[in-house]
Amino acid sequence: MTDCILWGNTAPTGHEIVLRSTANPSTLTIRYSDVQGGADEAYVESGCTLDVDGSNIDEDPLFVDADNDDFHLQPLSPCVDAGDQASDYSNEPLPNGCRTNMGAYGNTLEATPSPGDVDGDLNIDIDDLVLVYDTLGNGVYDPALDIDGDGVVTFADLRIVHRHMCPSEQYVGGVSTLWMLDYIVPTDPTVEGLDPYEDQSQMDNDGDGRTNHEEYIAGTDPTDASSLFGITEIDFMATLYLDSVSVSWSAVPDKNYCLYYSDTLGEGADWIPAGGYYEVINGIATQVLDVDGDNKMRFFKVKVW
């Protein structure tokens, strides 16, 4: 089952999904669908298999009028442009985000168009993204840019536009065009800002030795050479009973890190996750590891995502 919506049904057990065991036990695979309660609310008898993954959601589909059997989607429904990227969407009216809607009307002429076409050209693209971005904070209210209708143009409207752009416009060279907007005007005025209309993923605008794609992954500023991800300090600490090493690296909010260590370098190196926890203070993450004091050589690296 793909690109479907199971919502608002009732049953003695398993309001949306029931798998019963008979002579031929049931198996159901669900992908890119909106299922109320998710797998936790399904009734699955012994011997049956329910296969779900992270492509599914459990959010109010925002039907137009379910009480009167109108199961069209409202424009801000989470099911708009949420179907399988491999599914056909060519029958949906423009703009359609280059992706089918979940539900009965996905890939049909009755599909709900994607929100975010603020310039009215039936295409949600970088032009629309820039129009909304340029309005943020200028004190001028344009109802055409207030996509969520809350009376103010905010980053929430910007995110809606970006979500409903075709994938080729959402990411250029693996870099989010939404992220690039923040660096059109460079932090360092002596370097060139980013251009979301171009693939600049392999450029190094600030000359710090990291490509813009690497800076995007790390969450650092691609227009400021001092904003750099890397290990900043390694301290060995020896006591009477225990030896340890403290490894510190630059860190930014909303990123995850994993410290690895190895006793050798090169292609054959066995990089082992350090485990444990790190603490972030004033933009510096620090993790302390117990080590063998007799082992005089150890190498470290940090993964960010």
Summarize the structure.
This protein is an alpha+beta fold and 305 residues long. The chain is 11% helix and 22% strand. The protein has a four-stranded antiparallel beta sheet, with no helix packed on it. A three-stranded antiparallel beta sheet has the order 14-13-17, with no helix packed on it.
Fold and architecture overview:
- This protein has 305 residues and is an alpha+beta fold.
- The protein has 3 domains: 1-114, no CATH class; 168-218, no CATH class; 231-304, Immunoglobulin-like (Sandwich), CATH 2.60.40.
- It contains 5 helices and 17 strands.
- The strands form 7 sheets. A 4-stranded antiparallel beta sheet has the order 11-12-16-15, with no helix packed on it. Strands 14-13-17 form a 3-stranded antiparallel beta sheet, with no helix packed on it. A two-stranded parallel sheet has the order 1-4.
